[in-house]
Write a structure and sequence with these properties.
single chain, 206 residues, mainly alpha, 10 helices, transmembrane helix
């Protein structure tokens, strides 16, 4: 249960589906309720697939390019810190690579569930590097099953949050979403710093 909660909390903080609510509403403003629900579903499915592939295949990609896990943790920590700082400073979408050009292009396409909603907004480099590191940190099959379970529940949470985007927007308001994003941003920043510190300690011990 501890591993499940750790994985879910870390991924939820990095992915931050609540922070994606305003962008989701903007991209689907002219869609019907059924179309919005379908987009939310496919965005969650895409996030799930991307995270699971990253979890199981990422290690072999690192070996192919000769990248050590500690270097990956430092790189991932920097990306996570950048995302966290973006949430704190209110420049989250810019930090995720969702420029105005990408947003405008997405508004003219029927399928936005993969890009930019799943990639790069939610399943970005930060969450990918986090899972690749966890694959090596937890070698037991039972631990890997728990992590996959956390990914599945997280994807369900993404679907429910995006599906309830209109309600959440009315309930929390713009200021409420910003406040929650700032809190999550602080947690994300702390996670990124912890990753960098742990990696530096491991490198200098060697």
């Amino acid at each position: 249960m501890d591993l499940f909660l750790l994985t879910f909390a870390a991924l939820f903080s990095v992915i931050n589906p609540l922070g994606s609510v305003p962008i989701f509403l903007g991209l689907t403003q002219d869609d019907s309720k059924e179309s919005k629900n379908k987009t939310a579903l496919w965005a969650a499915i895409n996030v799930c697939i991307i995270l699971i592939i990253s979890f199981f295949i990422g290690e072999y990609v690192l070996k192919f390019f000769g990248i050590s896990i500690d270097v990956l943790r430092i790189a991932g920590g920097i990306i996570i810190c950048t995302s966290g700082f973006g949430l704190l400073s209110g420049t989250f979408s810019k930090k995720r690579g969702v420029s105005k050009k990408v947003t405008d292009d997405a508004q003219h396409r029927s399928d936005i569930a993969l890009t930019p909603l799943a990639i790069p907004m939610m399943a970005g480099p930060g969450s990918m590097s986090l899972l690749i590191a966890m694959y090596q940190d937890y070698p037991e099959y039972s631990d890997k099953a728990i992590i996959v379970g956390a990914i599945l529940i997280l994807s369900l949470s993404v679907f429910l949050i995006l599906r309830s985007a209109n309600y959440l927007s009315k309930l929390l308001g713009a200021s409420g979403i910003v406040a929650i994003s700032r809190i999550i941003g602080f947690l994300v920043l702390a996670i990124g710093v912890q990753y960098i510190v742990n990696s530096l300690v491991a490198i200098f011990k060697i």
